[in-house]
Amino acid sequence: MFLPLCRRPSAMALARFQAAVSQGSLTDAISDVQQRTPESFHSHTLHITITGEPGSGKSSLINALRGLRAGDEGAAETGMLETVTETMAYRDPVLPGVTLWDLPGAGTSHFPLNTYCEQLSLGRFDFFLLVGSQRFRAAHAQLAREIQGMGKRFYFVRSKADMDLEASRRQRPSSYSEERILQEIREDCQRGLAAEGVGHPQVFVVSSWEPDSYDFPLLRQTLQKDLPGLKRLAFLLSLPAVASPIISQNKAALEGEIWKPALLSCLLAAIPLPGLAFLGTFFIFRKHLLRYYSRFGVDNRSLSALARQVGKPVEELKAVMSTLGPTPMMALRLLVDAVGFTVMAQECSWKRLPIFGAMVSGGAALLATYFMLWKGLASVADDTRRVLSKALEAEGKKSI
Ligand SMILES: Nc1nc2c(ncn2[C@@H]2O[C@H](COP(=O)(O)OP(=O)(O)OP(=O)(O)O)[C@@H](O)[C@H]2O)c(=O)[nH]1
Ligand SMILES: [Mg+2]
Description:
Radius of gyration: 28 Å
CATH architecture of the largest domain: 3-Layer(aba) Sandwich
Strand order of the largest sheet: 2-3-1-4-5-6
CATH class of the largest domain: Alpha Beta
Number of domains: 2
Order of helices and strands: HHEHEEHEHEHHEHHHHHHH
Bound molecules: guanosine-5'-triphosphate, magnesium ion
């Protein structure tokens, strides 16, 4: 439904990152990005989305940022009625490598608030200008929470300041103070955002009709100043998608070798020694599972190094891992739950019918080892994706 977003990340940075992930060194993957200056992410395209309620002035803001007025050639469509029902992209003529995206308003019959983020795949954008006119409302807070929930950053842009000032001037001409009214509006937005627990994003009170007044010049300057950091953050947040196929490739390569430990487990289980089937399967399974953790770079030692590197407690990285996790107990738990009883049952049949029993016991051990290693490997690969995303998210917070 949507066009894929064009990105031109630094090819060198990307190649080194891919190589490090492929070798199972997440610390190297992140260390390379850490050593780069924000300026080195210059070629990364930043996709800024302008979102907010219908009619709040999103398209007018895009026009003003691009130095255009409504009706100019190439300007976004604006109007009193619902104008934009699909996503539109515009190049920013001032900020290099920035694409501005005009979105339909959130909370219309086509795009209800509850499904808005999903319908428009907001996760694909890097940065948000959340636009609200008039008072701060619950809808703004909900969008802000959703943006934050995706690990993305935003500025809150309070539009149509000229209307508020004009209304105040008419109502109370004697006590009219432009700066006081603008400050009241800023504080109202900041209070509303803070009350919803979305931190303290920057708030700009602007009028797209007067792009040289109020906070509009500051909005431009801030975007310009934050641009290198925002590009670095966007680059970091784009890396999990780059790493995912590499992790899948590593997983596929290891899957191709599972038959070897499974066969060994089968041979051990066929030996008529009580308990050997269980112990053999257990140790083979444990050894290979630990090997997978180490191969993907999510064993205990690598996790501690990674946590130190991004300045997070190791528990935060471990918290995103599945219940399996790289502890010595996990193999025993899994094996007892899923394999142990099967293998022991086969050992009983082996006592009564030696040859048939050995075949059954060996076959059961082979299948059980194969299945559990397959499952364990998939779980380690998924853990790696989650740990890497978490570490990149932590590193990204240092960008701006
Ligand atoms: N006075 C004033 N009016 C504005 C300003 N910005 C937008 N408007 C008006 O508000 C109306 C809606 O503006 P749009 O820019 O189309 O709003 P939108 O959020 O893009 O609307 P949808 O795409 O339909 O959701 C238009 O009539 C604009 O002229 C502003 O800064 N000041
Ligand atoms: Mg619009």
